Amino acid sequence: MAEKSDNNAYWAANIRLVTISLVIWAFASYGFGILLRPLISGIAVGGTDLGFWFAQQGSILVFLVLIFFYAWRMNKIDKEHGVDE
Amino acid sequence: MDQTTLNIIVVGLSFALYFGIAIWARAGSTSEFYAAGRGVNPVVNGMATAADWMSAASFISMAGLIAFSGYTNSLFLMGWTGGYVLMAMLLAPYLRKFGKYTVPEFIGDRYYSNTARVVAVVSLIVISVTYVIGQMTGAGVAFSRFLEVESTTGLFIASAVVFVYAVLGGMKGITYTQVAQYVVLIIAYTIPAVFISLQLTGNPIPGLGLFSTMAEGQVGAGQHLLVTLDGLLTDLGFNEYTAGTNAWLMALYTLSLMIGTAGLPHVIIRFFTVPKVADARWSAGWALVFIALLYLTAPAVGAMARLNITTQFWPEGIQGEAVSLETIENDDAYDWMATWQATGLLGWEDKNGDGRIQYYNDANADMQALAAERGWAGNELTNFNRDILVLANPEIANLPGWVVALIAAGGIAAALSTAAGLLLAISSAISHDLIKSVINPNISERGELLAARISMAGAIVLATYLGLNPPGFAAQVVALAFGLAAATLFPVLMMGIFSKRMNSAGATWGMLAGLISTCLYLFLYLGWFFIPGTNMLTADQYLFGIPPTHFGPIGAVFNFAVAYLVSNATAAPPKEIQDLVESVRIPRGAGAAINK
Can you give the pLDDT at residue B592? Predict the structure, then answer.
């Protein structure tokens, strides 16, 4: 049963990482890019406000960093739990 | 050499390249036909996925969509990239571990039900066929614009090219042609953008140029590009480029596109081609790198083209005189107008007979007052198709002829690469999920490979037919494709991985709930089966103001809710299914599935 409980720990670690990543994903797009744009409209970026930049550039850059971060971190978690190949 | 000859040479060379790859990458087994033998490098797969994903719409239409709405249509940028985060973390690695060939196959096996399998096949075919129509017509249009052939002829040529490499090479041939097509399309897209960004702002990176100040000698020199653009547009009575919008609706549409993207079968199956689970994770990242190169550039292309066009019509601003007909005829900088007038994408008319073309928003009350004062008789740029912004961009910026030819090859590459991916998803669902899994499980490997090739040929014939006779509702069906992918496939795939308790009845009813609610909402407002005039409700009766295009996430909620309720009221899935779920969660052993 040791293997079983380790699989559970592995899956819990995955869920934790996915949850954190998706919170950031939501903030970068739905948050700063759309719903929170009025709140951060005071921050000027290149002739407009930060929310506009997030909607047209920033969100995509955050998505990129997130996917690579997830892949890197998850591959490490695989090794820690001995389920890599 | 004239422009058409140059276009034919460049497009012809790109075709020769695709054929060469097709012969080199022939598929010899079903594993090669469906999943390229699972030997594709993650970076290479990322590039192929980018071409698979970026369609004629991304290449030709997206910059124009953004240019004419400004901030609001940023939702396409976020929606069509953010879905990759969901795919990378919630679907792709686990489905790769499952180690089979198609999306309905996972659904059928995981939910131990041929009913679920068939519902998934039906969803997949509706999604992919609607999507492929746009690609075929897109390729036909690109041919007719640049090569001066009838768009029907163009469509036949496009089908013949896809036929050669898709039937011969299957996924293997498609993968390596998509890589070549990506290279062609990204060069074609970025070269004009870099030149234009340099001209306007002095910054060679368009995504940075968009937020830079205007260069010396340009209108509004030293002022930020977006401030300049906002000023020009409000002067003409248009909305400010950076102005806000209904945030909740924008968020809902973005969500629909994101979930829909993650649930599109032709993209998901690309991740079946890499050797390991870890590769599938990296590959999603590389796919987004290659997609982002275009998506970070597109908003700059849109804004800069809108600015260029506006200043061409008002060389001295709105206080001065509009451009004269004489200038349009004689000045080289305006040559593009005659070229695109001939294609029917651009039209103007000197309504007040003053020998000048006034371009402004004649629906705006303040502008009507100004027009009365200055003797204008309405907006004189009578036809302004938004696709022009990308297609005519190199000409507007006075770039050399070979750049124009590249745009032709790039547009065709974008359409063909997406069409091929969709056709593979359709044909493998038929040969593998219907024939091999349901109708004739004893079919031999060679028999299945032959069936796969015949299905592919059949799918191409169908796509060509639909491209020639596009249903009148082509624009609406794209909304259907994303809405359905979000409401049917994404939820059952996700629950199949993240919930061990989800059973066959839950998934089947969930999928049906998503499918039916989404179709119903679309049909009520857009007409039954999109037949014009049969809609029973109109736009002012939207439920909570939600347009049908935004319905995907709501259909997905129905799917999740019904699946949860039905599954909890019925028996848990058998032990071996729970073990299967356990095994797709664990990366080790994915390599062993190779050539299974």
Answer: 66
Q: Are B95 and B269 in contact (CB under 8 A)?
A: no
Domain count, chain A: 1
Residues A29 and A23: their CA atoms lie apart, in Å, by: 10
Least confident of A74-83, B144-153, B407-416: B144-153
Q: What is the mean pLDDT of residues B564-590?
A: 93
Q: What is the mean pLDDT of chain B?
A: 90
State pLDDT tens for residues B253-266.
999 999 999 999 99
Mean pLDDT of B462-484: 76
| Cα atoms found within 13 Å of the Cα of residue B503, Cβ hemisphere only | 13
DSSP letter assigned to residue B568: H
Residue B89, amino acid: M
Residues 23-52 of A with CB under 8 A from B: 25, 29-30, 33-35, 37-38, 45-49, 52
Contact B74 A7 (CB under 8 A): no
How far is A74 from chain B, CA to nearest CA, in Å?
Answer: 8
Residue A53 inside a domain? The answer is: yes
Q: What is the ipTM of this complex?
A: 0.95
Query: How far apart, in whole angstroms, are the C-alpha atoms of residue A72 and residue A77?
Result: 9
CB A63 within 8 A of CB B242: no
Identity of the residue numbered B505 = A
Q: Is the dihedral of CA B159, B162, B164, B166 positive or negative?
A: negative
Helix (H, G, I), strand (E, B) or coil at B351: coil
Cα(B91)–Cα(B95) distance, rounded to whole angstroms? 6
Residue A36: inside a domain:
yes
Can you name the CATH fold of B3-303+400-471?
Answer: Hydantoin permease (1.10.4160)
Residue pair B303/B60 in contact (Cβ under 8 Å)? The answer is no
Give A3's contacts (C-beta < 8 A, 6+ positions apart).
none
**Which sign does the torsion angle of CA B113, B118, B123, B128 carry?**
positive
Q: Helix H segments across B148-212? A: 151-201, 206-209
For the beta carbon of residue A82, count every other beta carbon within 10 angstroms.
Answer: 10
**Is any Cβ of chain B less than 8 angstroms from the Cβ of A18?**
yes
pLDDT tens, residue by residue, A28-81: 999 999 999 999 988 999 889 999 999 999 999 999 999 999 999 999 999 999
Question: Could you tell me if residue A46 is inside a domain?
Answer: yes
Q: Taking CB atoms and an 8 Å limit, are A53 and B211 in contact across chains?
A: yes
For residue A85, is it within any domain?
no
Q: Which domain holds residue A31?
A: 2-80
User: Are residues A29 and B82, on separate chains, in Cβ contact within 8 Å?
Assistant: yes
pLDDT of res. B595: 43
d(CA B300, CA B316): 23
Please count the CA atoms within 13 angstroms of the CA of B573 that sit on its side-chain side.
24
Distance of alpha carbon B215 from alpha carbon B229, whole angstroms: 14
Cβ-based neighbour number of residue B257 at 10 Å: 27
Mean pLDDT of B345-364: 91
- Beta-carbon count within 10 A of B1 CB: 7
**Per-residue pLDDT at B310 exceeds 50:** yes
Per the CB < 8 Å rule, is B285 touching A68? Answer: yes
What is the nearest CA distance from B258 to chain A, expressed in angstroms? Answer: 11
Buried b (16+ CB within 10 A) or exposed e, B269-284: bbbbbbbbbbbbbbbb
Nearest CA in chain A to B253: A30
